[in-house]
Amino acid sequence: MKIIKTWALGMCLLLGTCATQPESEVQTNDKGTQWEWKKGTIVVKTPERPAGQESVLGLALPKMEAVRVGFVGLGMRGPGAVERFTYIPGTQVVALCDYEKERAEACQELLRKASLPKAAIYSGEKGYEELCKRDDIDLVYIAADWLHHFPIAKCALENGKNVAIEVPSAMNLKECWELVNLSEKMRKHCMILENCCYDWFEMNTLNMAQQGVFGEIIRAQGAYIHNLNEFWDHYWKKGEDDKLGWRLDYNMRHRGDVYATHGLGPVAQALNIHRGDRMATLVAMDTKSVVGKALVEARTDSACTDFRNGDHTTTLIRTANGKVIEIQHDVMTPQPYSRLYQLTGTKGFANKYPVEGYALDSEQLSASGVQPKVDDLSAHGFLPQAEQEALVAKYQHPILKKYGELAKEVGGHGGMDFIMDSRLVYCLQNGLPLDMDVYDLAEWCCLAELGELSMDNGCVPVEFPDFTRGEWNVIKGYQHAYASPEEEAVAAEKAKAFTAKLKEQGAKEWGLTINN
Predict the structure, then answer these.
(1) pTM
(2) I need a surface site. Which of 157, 193, 208, 516 has the fewest CB within 10 A?
(3) How far is Cα 266 from Cα 250, in angstroms, rounded to an integer?
(4) Top-level EC class, please (predicted)?
(5) How many structural domains does the chain have?
(6) Cα separation of 298 and 303, whole Å?
């Protein structure tokens, strides 16, 4: 008996499942998150929905003839977003804001090139607050550094604005819950700008999955593996004493998958997360920090004794319906770039990075409406090129058919940024639910803190809170919303007319001649 107890205690300590306090006691971490032990699992509290709030699942607002936008954060990502919006009919760039005034003013040139009116300029540490108070802005588009995503979004929502936030859109559970509550309270959209959901392979594969090509999806993988060695010195620094820049500093101070959404977003859509399934439990592990510590030491010329984030982080997630997701994050080691996107189904397989392809046997390929040209085709290898091209052609996503060619011309990570922005505007102009809601934002962004809780306590299981507060199974299956062809045509004509008048106004303002 003594041997058994000793062994059990040793395993408990090894796995980190022994709480130092009774299981009934609620604990609070340094971010203010309340949690408790329950049978060796960390359970994070899901707060009750405050009185007066309602779910925003499927939230649709009145149609907007034109979408008036204020952009905040015009460093690495913001200017590209401003330029993309100059190509989208029925939009107006009303205001530009950045901590550094020069960056905001530089974006006026993008408006001049498009013969569009000048935008109002805001700058300084709190410049966004004045922008958010304007009554002529429908959408605040946030592309600032990570630490400012939440305060800007909070200010915008409190001022009755819809918000679209670059990733990661919230940095901890407290911020996730505040955005959920504000979106519900104000009845405004709060969208995560996860562009990887709009890349060609991801969209076509999602369409295949929704049409049953792979059978039932039971496992998925996603990743963000991107060595940032060439980029660390380009991230904004606040003054001469800032030796690291905001992104390296954040990785030094925080543990977990701090940039999970590129990998998690597309697979969450394929698995119908909070639309028939939900992420239930995770276990996270990381390597020690070697490269990260060395980067800090080289820039500060002093020893780094506590670099919180590991060089490589792996998170395993199990859903309520028994599916498994694996997500990886590594911005430190010299690996080839990879945004791994992989679906394992009962009848087929899809993979992106390092080899892009699909695996189906001849029977399933025929059942999917594509006649195999190879007699001995099996699922032991990827489809031959001709069969893969035929499969992709048959299941090309309708959104790619609508925006794909122009997106390749406009650009933005190969065009997926433009598709994302175009869909956002399309949904607002047609009064439709957005492709990604505030619950997507919270679920995808919470991976960082939940993973930190797991790793800081011996890599134990951690339960996900339910951001939908019990409504994750109300909607059956993830779907993009579309207007009828007639309604779409009316909205498009109004948008086109609005932009034509705006260009006339802009040409006069800039002293330009418009070539019709």
Answers:
(1) 0.94
(2) 516
(3) 25
(4) hydrolase
(5) 2
(6) 9
Please compute Rg for the chain using Cα positions: 24
Strand order in the sheet with 41-44: 27-28, 34-38, 41-44, 462-463, 279-286, 313-319, 324-330, 217-225, 341-345, 349-352, 357-359
Q: Is residue 109 domain-shared with residue 189, that is, in the same domain?
A: yes
Is residue 43 in some structural domain? no
User: How many helical (H) and strand (E) elements, i.e. helices and strands, does the chain have?
Assistant: 18, 17
- Is-cis flag, bond preceding 354, omega within 30? yes
Report yes or no: 83 and 71 within 8 Å, Cβ to Cβ.
no
Structure confidence by residue, pLDDT tens digits, 327-377:
999 999 999 999 999 999 999 999 999 999 999 999 999 999 999 988 788
Q: In terms of domains, do 74 and 100 share one?
A: yes
Q: At what angle do helices 246-253 and 291-300 cross, to 10 degrees?
A: 130
Give percent helix, percent strand, percent coil of the chain, each to the nearest 5: 40, 15, 45
Q: Quick one: 215 and 161 in the same domain? A: no
Q: Where in the sequence is the domain holding 133, given as residue range(s)?
A: 67-193+483-497
Which pair of structure tokens corresponds to residue 224?
């963000």
Task: Please give the average pLDDT of every successive group of 10 residues along the chain, which has 516 residues.
Answer: 40 46 77 95 96 97 98 96 98 98 98 98 98 98 97 98 98 98 98 98 98 98 98 92 96 98 98 98 98 98 97 98 98 97 98 97 95 86 96 98 97 95 98 98 98 98 98 98 98 98 97 73
Distances (CA, A) of 383 to 207, 347, 386: 18, 14, 8
Pairing of strands 27-28, 34-38: antiparallel
